[in-house]
From TrEMBL:
It comes from the Bacteria. The lineage of its organism: Bacteria, Pseudomonadati, Pseudomonadota, Alphaproteobacteria, Hyphomicrobiales. One of its GO terms (biological process) is tetrapyrrole metabolic process. Belongs to the TspO/BZRP family. It holds the Pfam family TspO_MBR. It is a multi-pass membrane protein. The chain crosses the membrane at residues 6-32, 44-65, 77-97, 104-123, 129-147. GO terms for cellular component: membrane. This is Tryptophan-rich sensory protein.
């Protein structure tokens, strides 16, 4: 699995699974629509294209790092970092939308942001370009955290 198309296929499938699971857990129903949100919240239609871009860049970063990393422990770190990040990414949607706990999601999004930062460090050991490609992800999760915080402040307690 060290070269050729395999890393590309694995990265693309992993990105699709994380995106699909997060989308499945995202319920924009009456509860969500009843929340007060800040005036600067991006429109709902923007989230799909932004996340598609982020997942694409993340998959590319993963492939670049994988191809540059030596076999063994370094690749294990890459898999672990991407796995933890993917789980935290999915979990945020479940906590916020399914459990309807933006207050808990605020704690979770901090962990997600830290996992993206960790991903940048782990990927950056092998690919500077890969690390740079993850910066929009870090920025977007930062915006999501600020939005999450605003929703908690405007609507709490939960």
């Amino acid at each position: 699995m060290s070269g050729g198309w395999t890393p590309i296929v694995v990265a693309a499938l992993a990105a699709i699974v994380v995106a699909a699971a997060g989308a499945w857990l995202t319920a924009l129903g009456p509860w969500y629509r009843s929340l007060r949100v800040p005036s600067w919240k991006p429109p709902d239609w923007a989230f799909g294209p932004v996340w598609t871009t982020i997942f694409t860049l993340t998959a590319i970063a993963g492939v670049l790092a994988w191809n540059a990393a030596p076999d063994g422990r370094e690749r294990t770190w890459l898999i672990a970092a991407f796995g933890v990040n993917g789980l935290l990414n999915i979990a945020w949607s479940g906590v916020f939308f399914r459990l309807r706990r933006p207050d808990w999601a605020l704690v979770e999004v901090a962990a997600l942001w830290l996992s993206v930062l960790g991903l940048i460090v782990v990927v950056g050991r092998h690919s500077g370009l890969g690390a740079v490609l993850l910066l929009p992800y870090l920025a977007w999760v930062g915006i999501a955290a600020l939005l999450n915080r605003s929703i908690v402040r405007l609507n709490g307690p939960f």
